[in-house]
Design a protein that fits this description.
Number of helices: 12
Helix content: 25-40%
CATH superfamily of the largest domain: Type I PLP-dependent aspartate aminotransferase-like (Major domain)
Shape: globular
CATH architecture of the largest domain: 3-Layer(aba) Sandwich
Strand order of the largest sheet: 2-8-7-6-5-3-4
Structural class: alpha/beta
Number of strands: 12
Number of domains: 2
Order of helices and strands: HEHHEHEHEHEHEEEHHHEHEEEH
Bound molecules: pyridoxal-5'-phosphate
CATH topology of the largest domain: Aspartate Aminotransferase, domain 2
């Protein structure tokens, strides 16, 4: 396939006023596609990284009630005590391990928790093992602070599963932490308990940390079990678990997340948190209390709908020439590969320009994703069907040879 002229204004110049550490932040592939799409008509977005459901009404109401009741000041730095209690109860039950509010800190979305965990620990000489492809924040935040990334590539032919032995073999004297994200953005892959246990046990034995991003922990299909790192570790000494309300309750814009760790780690990170965002949004923390204490019917309905879409998307990808799919068990993404050597960024751009279907180039998520696309099914089944009515004939016409 011929080269496509990229729009150069998406690429930043190296302006000397900025800290060179900022060069570790890549041009965001997602923004690039979405900006291009905004100039086109009749675009179908298979690019979306947030749920397309309205949050439960009792959750919204709790936020509104908090505002009306004057809950507009700062909370204590670790978070609203009522939310910390609710999270401790919820996780103690879910992971069958007693957790106290002192093990938890509320943050501005999982994003802040990831930022704190990685920038507080990354330093020159420390290596972080990160699956590739993976959520695009991890690598830059590690590199920005002088740490290095040891990427472990995963493949569509293998459902993008992480081979625990490969992770263990990668552990060395400089390994500081392993980053896990199950189910994964961008692959939707759910790691089975054996994988999580093997990695967590070996890491604990060697004094290596496990930082686990579990924001999709409720978006699990076919009734499968969710093996959280919290239910696979013997203590919290080397473990940090991150999550948020963004995906589970469709509250991405309300920006409430958290980090769970040892009391010592939480104490340290609370100080850092005060120097970054101070506290998370107060009325939305009250909405979070309502989410955890109220009915979870919303989640069941949402999961059923996603599973339905996942099934159809897997069929459609299976019918698409040049795409190799698989069956993801969680989140709302599929990361099919293109034939070896075919540049996913060129395909995504050409596909968008010629059919109006917006996907995300796989290299947004790491080197190993160069020959892949991320497809999100956080959009209606009708939109998914219509997108593939355009994609399939377009792919038939491509000659990648
Ligand atoms: C794997 C992963 N972690 C974290 C986040 C950010 O979550 P939050 O909205 O809670 O900051 C996302 C959002 O897309 C994600 O996919």
């Amino acid at each position: 396939m011929g080269n496509i002229n990229l729009d150069t204004d998406f690429y930043e110049s190296e302006d000397p006023i900025w800290n060179p550490a900022l060069l570790t932040i890549p041009v965001p592939g997602i923004r690039r596609m979405v900006n291009l799409a905004s100039d086109l008509d009749d675009v179908i977005h298979l690019s979306i990284g947030q749920p397309d459901f309205k949050p439960p009404s009792h959750v919204i109401q709790a936020g509104v009630d908090a505002l009306n009741a004057g809950q507009t000041g700062y909370t204590m730095d670790a978070g609203l005590p009522e939310l910390l209690e609710a999270l401790a109860d919820y996780y103690s039950e879910r992971s069958q391990r007693p957790l106290s509010p002192e093990n938890i800190m509320v943050t501005t979305g999982a994003t802040e928790a990831i930022y704190l965990a990685l920038t507080a620990t990354s330093a020159p000489g420390r290596e972080f093992i990160v699956p590739d492809p993976s959520f695009m924040l991890y690598g830059p935040l590690i590199r920005m602070n002088g740490g290095t990334v040891h990427a472990i590539p995963t493949r569509a032919e293998n459902n993008h599963q992480l081979d625990p032995q490969e992770v263990i073999d990668a552990m060395g004297p400089n390994t500081f932490a392993v980053i896990l994200n199950s189910p994964s953005n961008p692959t939707g892959t759910l790691y089975p308990r054996e994988t999580v246990e093997a990695i967590v046990e070996e890491a604990a034995y060697r004094g290596i940390h496990v930082i686990s991003d579990e924001v999709y922990d409720h978006l699990i299909y076919d009734g499968k079990e969710y093996p959280s790192v919290l239910s696979c570790c013997s203590d919290l000494d080397h473990v940090m678990v991150i999550s948020s309300f963004s995906k589970t309750f469709s509250m991405a814009g309300m920006r409430i997340g958290w980090l769970i760790g040892s009391q010592g780690a939480i104490k340290k990170l609370r100080r850092y948190h005060m120097f970054t965002t101070t506290v998370a949004n107060t009325p939305c923390q009250w909405a979070g209390v309502a989410a955890l204490r109220g009915s979870r019917n919303f989640i069941d309905t949402m999961v059923e709908e996603y599973q339905h879409r996942r099934d159809r998307l897997v069929e459609l990808v299976g019918q698409t020439p040049h795409l190799t799919g698989y069956r993801p068990d969680g989140a709302f993404y599929l990361f099919p590969s293109l034939p070896e050597g075919v540049d996913g960024a060129n395909v995504a751009l050409k596909l968008l320009r010629e059919t109006g279907v917006c996907t995300i180039p796989g290299d947004t998520f790491g080197e190993a994703g160069k020959h892949a696309l991320r497809i999100s099914y956080s959009t209606s089944l009708d939109q998914i069907e219509e997108a593939f009515e355009r994609i399939i004939p377009w792919m038939k016409k491509q000659n990648f040879g």
